[in-house]
Amino acid sequence: MTFLRLDNIKKNYGDAAVIKGVSFEAEKGEFVVFVGPSGCGKSTLLRMIAGLEDVSSGELYIDGKEVTYEEPAKREVSMVFQSYALYPHMSVFENMAFGLRMAKKPEAEIKAQVLEAARILQLEALLERKPRALSGGQRQRVAIGRSIVRHPKLFLFDEPLSNLDAELRSQMRVEIAKLHRALGATMVYVTHDQVEAMTLADRIVVLRAGLVEQIGSPTELYDTPANTFVAGFIGSPKMNFINAKVASVSGSTLALEHTTFAGGRLTLDTPAAARTKVGAAVTVGLRPEHLTVNTGNPVLALTLDFAESLGGSTQLYARSEGEPIIALTAGRPNLKPGDALTLSIDPSHIYLFDAAGLAL
Amino acid sequence: MSEAATSAARRKPNRGYGRWTPLWFLAPAVLTLLLIGIYPTIFALVTSFRRYNITRPREGFPFVGFENYVNVLTDSTFWSSLFLTAKFYVAVLPIQVVLGLAIALLLHKPGMGLLKSLARVTLVVPLATTYAVVGLVGRLIFNRDFGVANQFLSFAGFGPIDWLSTQDGAFAAIVIMDVWQWTPFCALIFLAGLSMVPGEIEEAARLETSSKLALLRHVQLPYLLPGLTAVMILRSADVLKLFDMVFVMTRGGPGSATDLISIYIQRVGFRIFDLGTASAQAILLLILTIIISRLYIRLLYREVH
Fold first, then answer.
1. Which residues of B lie closer than 8 Å to A, measured between beta carbons?
2. pTM greater than 0.80 (yes/no)
3. Which residue numbers delimit the ABC transporter domain (chain A) (predicted)?
4. Whole-number Å distance between alpha carbons of B277 and B268
5. I want to staple A36 with a disulfide (CB 3.0 to 4.6 A). Which of A60, A207, B28, B250 is the partner?
């Protein structure tokens, strides 16, 4: 059942189009993540769902009801902000109780709801404190608590972990995932951090410059990126791209030319061969973690520039025309800068994109 | 040159620079303050303990202890002037606060950028107008025969009111002029307070309630309280020394209808020339102002973190 539906949503500021027509649907209980580089419009889109930003055109439905021009408070959504946005003059208890007070709920119910939320988020000991007496992580917990006490139809998160340090961030990430499982609620989460997107999402919406680039589960985006943008955005370290040229096509066998390839040539058996022709530009995408070092059947012949040991694994930077090729390998290969480096890859892990950057 | 000075010069502690720099920057302001603020206050304090009638210099200016203060505190005109001043304050302040807040809320709404900046500039005009000029304008507005006030009333079908020659009319006239002059100040202060509310906090509240009143009461008000305290302190200090506007408009009359405390003190000092008594009155007002300010700060001022 479709719970949240965006139908060709657009947003203009004067002449500048910020959201250029986004359509998308989410099921009840789904965890959807909007991800994209800064300025792609993901926060604007979230704020339009909340009603904090006017929709220029298009329609928005929550739980089967059109809410495009509904007031924020009447949409029954709650939002966790990047800056937490706690009421500074209210105690933790009052912060969480505010929405229920405004909804004129009986005092006993308010108390029960707030205490329940405080129990889930381990805030019981802090209920009398003012926000300024809390740490960043605690404030974020209160902000989440404030959003869950009202039992909203939809939870919105606007980069909620950006102000936290790395350790706290991964801890809160796990807590949000647990919370989603416990509440079974529909959540929309905005982040520019692809790790958050990959770990939290049931489905990811990748946005760029106000347009949807691809919608899919984290593994779909990783395994079958629709274009070079999504391929480069999902996965860390970033996918290597080699701008090759088609040397020959015969049946399903495709030969590509580039100086980086071992022997200057890469021959592949792929159905994509039919969709290209001799002389066409093809971008070859290779994920660093799929590359293996100095085994048989080399695909790339390069020179090692330098190696970064991460302890359990090693990140190798190889010189090539254009951007350096990065390979992530387990263990500590015995290589020095300047050594010849041959890399091989399972052909099923080779991604091909056409000149426009779309997957072949 | 003294020996100390020469030895100081030999060690070269440069008094024009380094840790002395702040001193030189502060000195002009501090000296001016001493000259025009502290010195007259001390002079008034000393004078208040003397019999100091400058029409009778032959009697000298002997110290009389607290005699002036006793006279002031037992003077029924002093008390009635003070009461009238309080009445004036209680009449103008709520109007200014409510109107000022309404204007601030209107200007705080998003949209209409150009008109709003124009309105904000316009708000400064009454503040920049000299009190005496406000009084002169007031005399014209409330003139019985060709004033604007009566013209507007005639549009509504009311007969002419003799504003400045009746007790209630004159009091109402000075109240209206004071509201005209000071409402913009309240509006600006509240506007500043409203813009202190972080956007995301206001948005968080908008997601929880659609009531503008609840937003004002629970989210914006805490940010307005410091400004409100400042308004109350400044206005009570200002009303206690309000002189020029009222003097130009009514000279305290008719009768004693607009005889505010500062006008009464001025009369004692510069019509009767009893500067000792006038000084005692002024010192008492100063003490009153300080007490009122402390009370406001104690009762109202809450910093939002």
1. 198, 200-201, 203-211, 214, 218-219, 222, 302, 304-305
2. no
3. 4-234
4. 7
5. A207
User: How do the domains of chain A map onto residue ranges?
Assistant: 2-233, 240-353
Residue range A100-155, pLDDT digits in tens? 998 889 999 999 999 999 988 888 899 999 999 998 889 999 999 999 898 899 99
Rounded to 5 degrees, φ, ψ at B253 are -100, -165
* A151 inside 8 A of chain B by CB: no
| Domains defined for chain B, CATH in brackets | 3-47 (no CATH), 69-300 (1.10.3720.10)
- Reported ipTM: 0.81
Residue A262's SS3 state is: helix
**What are the helix and strand counts (H, E) for chain B?**
15, 0
Residue A71 sits at the chain B interface (C-beta within 8 Å): yes
Chain B residue with minimum CA distance to A99: B208
* CATH superfamily label, A2-233: P-loop containing nucleotide triphosphate hydrolases (3.40.50.300)
| A81 in reach of chain B (CB within 8 A) | yes
* Residue A336 in contact with partner chain B when CB distance is under 8 A: no
> Token pair 């003097």 is at which residue?
B247
Residue of A nearest to B203 (CA): A52
Could A52 and B211 be called an inter-chain contact, meaning their C-beta atoms sit closer than 8 Å? Answer: no
A83 — contact with chain B (CB < 8 Å)?
A: yes
Alpha-carbon gap, residue B131 to B236, rounded angstroms: 16
Model confidence pLDDT, tens digit, residues B128-157: 999 999 999 999 999 888 888 888 888 888
Question: Which fold is adopted by the domain A240-353?
Answer: OB fold (Dihydrolipoamide Acetyltransferase, E2P) (2.40.50)
**Chain A residue at shortest CA distance from B199:** A85
